[in-house]
Protein: Succinyl-diaminopimelate desuccinylase
Amino acid sequence: MINIRAELPEILKELIAVESVTGEEKEICDILEKTMAPFDGTLIREENSLVFHLDRGKEKRIALIGHIDTVPLGNSTTEAYEKDSMLFGRGACDMKAGLAVMLKIISDESIGAISLSHNLSFYFYSGEEGPVPNGINTLLDRGHFKNVDFAFILEPTESRYSVGCLGSLAVKKEVFGVSAHSANPRTGENALNKSLQIYEKIREMDGIIGSDRTLDGLLYYETVNVTALNTFNAFNVLPPRAELMINYRFSPERSLEEAKELLFASIGAENTVIVDEADSSYAGEGIDHYLMEGIDREIMQAWTDIAQLNAAGIPSINFGPGSIRHAHKPDEHINLKDFSDFYKSMIFHL
Structure:
């Protein structure tokens, strides 16, 4: 069990100490389940995801949501440590700091240290970092978000309201040539040369779409990139096939179908397979009731699970401690003062 009566940094250290790489979340889910079981609420487990409802007779329900998995440890550590008012360790900002805030709220509410204006539901889900199935989809499909009026996903946003996110379209593009010995290339056709033509088309498209944009005064930009190029051949053979992976991050003002149309107009649909797709999202209307004045808003220059929640009719934003710039890095960390200040801001909304 995690001692959630402790101060926030100590809760975070205990969470970091439990390695929870995507696909290996059972241990941390077991620990979280045992941690929340004694508290006055309704606890539900779905595979390696958890839901905890606090029903306090209020009119509206707010959801606080966080993923329990992290990227692989790499050169980071599960032995969290403090230095220069920072706390370091894998998941420190992405997003075990958010989980620590959620647990602290459960603890503080149970002893009357905070009072609620809303019923609360807490979602601790697996599989966010991929490529395994995303646990939030399981919770949505099985009806665990019924009666939620508004949702905060506590991804790191530097305590800003991230009210929108980009969509993502990933495709695999194959081009074909004719193999030949590299000493006698005139008898073949190099597929790699053809792939470079596709690469140039992607660079041209990125130059066209990549200028700064604003939506309700919020800055963002679209981008498209070749993220992998493979030829699968020996060093002395002209490649007969080349495979490019292409990722297009598109505007909240553009639908997924429009994004496909634009990308395929550039590179062609032939021998092109969609490997991943996720719509963009913008929750710019009807949410002011749940938000504070004076906190900056942004469109996240990435895709997040708010897209799935908004598509399901649940107004949702990202709002969390820490900076995405420090996520997944060997020195992943969070500023402890900002961490504490975020907790106070979060309480205001509840």
Notes: Helices lie at 8-16, 26-36, 96-110, 135-141, 191-209, 256-267, 306-311, 336-349. The chain has two domains: 8-165+280-349, 167-278. The mean pLDDT is 95.
